[in-house]
Amino acid sequence: MARLDGASAELRGGDRIRKIENCSPNIKIPMDPRHLVQLAAILEKGSITQASRHLHLTQPTLTHNMQTLEMQAGGRLFERSRYGVRSTPLGEMLAREGRAIARRLKDAAEVTARHRGGIRHQVRLGIGPVIGAAVMGELAPVLLRQFPDLALALQNDRPHLLLEQLIDGGHDFVIAPSWLEHPPPGIVRQLLADDELGVFCARRHPLAGKAELGAEDVDDRAWISLGTASPFDQDVRGKLEAVGVQRLRVEITVLGDAAMLLDMLAQGQHLAVLPRFPLRRLAARFGLVELPMSGPPTPRPIYLWCRAGLLEDAVMGEVSELIVETVRAWAR
Q1: Residue whose C-alpha is closest to residue 130's, from 176, 198, 190
Q2: Average pLDDT of adjacent 10-residue blocks, the chain of 332 residues
Q3: Residue 313: how many CB atoms within 10 A of its CB?
Q4: Full-model pTM
Q5: Where are the domains of the chain?
Q6: How far apart are CA 289 and CA 200, in angstroms?
Q7: Do strands 271-275 and 302-307 pair parallel, antiparallel, or not at all (unpaired)?
Q8: What CATH topology corresponds to 28-118?
Q9: Do the record's keywords include Transcription regulation (predicted)?
């Protein structure tokens, strides 16, 4: 009987604990990081069914974990519909943390694998498409010769997206132009090239080789744009308006892929506004020339970006110095 009374007391105690956990607003239960990763997977895949397969979990388990997370977060994380799930603002904020945790876990696995192979350091470098095409082929060997136990993880993307990824912890460094007067809080930048925009075309283009061009020469010509949704688009249009171009006929828009843009530009049917420093290094390879357009210069400085605390690491500080020294020498 004593044993039964004890068991009953233990069950009643467990019931009280569960009631406290479920009902008391003053007791906070830490969120399980795995649940945040699972939430990110659900929103990425668009359904609990697809996420459960990706995560190798049963649907009831995943549903229960999301109910627990919603209880702890104090609100709905996503809405279900016939087309899948759609995140709420709260769900998107927590999913962002889940994606960061997933990246850290992936990074940890990669660190372990690299360490077994004799690699002691990794630099995650994001780089804009045009500047990446212009410098990375030579810059990577420079870094690897100086740091034999270094591994490079390179990502090419549009500059404003790279900066967002840097803020989220997705990169150690970013090489990209700036559209901001000042860097975001916690981010520092160093000038690599005090660059400007120019108008470029292929050597075979009808306008190539002319000594002087006016607005009437380029008005209503076919253009290629490197992403009309970027913060730099206004600079491009401003440059053309400054020289009197009224009709800008953009036939092709390329998002984040410099090689594709330059290859199409080399065919000789289009014009493009591009930064001068990278194009000086790429012009011979793709058979391109800059057109002699009048008008005031349009600055497009290129920077090395990183989080402020990163430079406290001795190796990262040396990597930063070498990148700055090397690219500045090329830009002179």
Answers
A1: 176
A2: 39 39 53 94 92 93 94 92 88 93 82 64 91 96 91 90 90 90 91 92 91 76 69 60 68 86 94 93 95 82 95 93 97 92
A3: 13
A4: 0.65
A5: 28-118, 120-194+301-331, 197-290
A6: 6
A7: unpaired
A8: Arc Repressor Mutant, subunit A (1.10.10)
A9: yes
CB atoms under 10 Å from CB of 204, counted, come to: 12
Asked whether the domain spanning 197-290 has the same topology as the one spanning 28-118, the reply is no
Q: Beta strand 288-290 with 173-177: parallel, antiparallel or unpaired?
A: unpaired
CB 100 within 8 A of CB 168: yes
Single-letter amino acid, residue 309: G
Which fold would CATH assign to domain 120-194+301-331? D-Maltodextrin-Binding Protein; domain 2 (3.40.190)
In whole angstroms, what is the distance from residue 172 CA to residue 156 CA? 14
Q: 228-255 in b/e burial notation, b at 16+ Cβ within 10 A?
A: eebebbebbbebbeeeebeebeeebebb
First to last CA, the chain: 91
Question: Contact, 310 vs 172, CB < 8 A?
Answer: yes
Measured distance CA(75)–CA(160) in Å, rounded: 31
Q: Where do runs of H (alpha helix) occur along the chain?
A: 2-23, 33-45, 48-55, 59-73, 89-116, 129-146, 159-167, 215-218, 233-242, 258-265, 276-286, 314-331
Q: Tokens for 284?
A: 């011979």
Q: What is the CATH number of domain 197-290?
A: 3.40.190.10
